[in-house]
C-alpha cells in the first residue's frame, strides 16, 4: 500500500508529530498521517477504508493512546505483525523489541513465572551489589574524612556537605583510628632525635 512519506523515515515523521502536538502519536495516528495526501484525501480506497476504521476505533478506544502493543488499533485492524518488523514504527522496530513489555506477549503462564523469577533474581543480585557498593563508599568516605582531619585539623567547608551524613570521628562510639595515630607523626620522631 503506498504512503505519503516518500523518502522520509516513519520514525522522523513520528518525531515531527510529537513536536507539533507535544504527545507521542500512536500507530493509528501514524498510519493516517502517512497515508493521507496534503489535501486530506487518502492515497487509495484501501487506505481510506482502513484509515476510517482506525479513526472510528480511536474515538471509541479508552486505553492509553500511546501504548504500542499487538492489541492496539493497528494490531486489531491489520492483524498479526511480520516476524521482523512492526507496522507504523519505522526502521529497526521488530515485535521482539517493540512489544517486549506488552501484556499480550505473556499468554503462557510458565513463561510469565519464569520471567518473574528471572527478574526477581536479577533484582536481588543488583540489590546486594548496591548494598556492597554503598558500604564500600561509606568506608572510603570515613577514611577520607579521617585523613583530611589529620592534615587540616578539621573538615574544610568545601567538604562539609560530602561528610554531612557520615558519623563524626570525635563521637565516642564511632571514633576511627587514624593511620597517622597508629604509626606516630613525623614531629614525634624528630623530637626524639
Automatic annotation (TrEMBL):
InterPro entries per the UniProt record, alphabetical: FHA_dom, Probable_transposase_24
UniProt cross-references to Pfam families, sorted A to Z: Transposase_24
Protein name listed in UniProt: FHA domain-containing protein
